[in-house]
Write a structure and sequence with these properties.
Order of helices and strands: HHHH
Distance between the termini: 61 Å
Structural class: mainly alpha
Shape: rod-shaped
Number of strands: 0
Strand content: under 5%
Number of domains: 1
């Protein structure tokens, strides 16, 4: 009755321990990457909304400037120089406002593009780390160290893209991203 029940563990306990440690580390790294990726996506959504709002405001300001320029021309023909001058000033004010709005919209668009490239890096990281996790599980089943080494290779690629995303490094395989998009 005092016999210990042994858990079924493969022949190579050392390999199983390495697989277990690999799985835990990959899970933690994936979780951290996912949190950052989600934050980048939220920033991209805010940039996109801001860009759309700013371009809409830019267009309406351009229309106001055009309307004031038209009013100035008409008032000039009606011999109302004071009113025409006021319309010209308003048109100039709207033109200046439109330049500022255009610059803000372009900045939001540029930030969206930058964040999109970072999001791609985190997506690639997640993909390679998921592959590594699956291959590590297979390594335990087939009890092959070489399979675990393949998992570590995929994990290294995932870690590379994760670090590139966090550090904003220009590592971005455009061909692979284009293929997967």
């Amino acid at each position: 009755m005092n016999e210990a029940i042994e858990a079924p563990e493969g022949k190579d306990r050392r390999l199983n321990r390495m697989v277990a440690i690999t799985v835990v580390l990959l899970s933690v790294v994936m979780a951290v990457g996912k949190i950052k990726d989600d934050n980048i996506v939220q920033t991209m959504q805010a940039d996109q909304a801001s860009k759309i709002d700013l371009w809409g405001e830019y267009q309406s300001t351009q229309i106001k400037a055009h309307d004031q320029a038209t009013a100035a021309a008409l008032l000039g023909k009606l011999n109302a120089p004071a009113d025409a001058a006021a319309a010209v000033r308003e048109a100039a004010r709207y033109k200046a406002e439109a330049r500022d709005l255009k610059a803000q919209a372009k900045a939001a668009s540029d930030d969206y593009d930058i964040q999109g490239r970072r999001d791609d890096q985190f997506d690639l990281s997640d993909g390679f780390l998921s592959i590594a996790l699956a291959v590590a599980a297979i390594a335990a089943l087939v009890e092959g160290l070489w399979v675990l080494c393949v998992a570590w290779g995929a994990a290294a690629l995932g870690a590379l893209f994760l670090v590139a995303g966090f550090a904003q490094l220009p590592i971005h395989p455009d061909a692979l991203v284009a293929f997967l998009s």
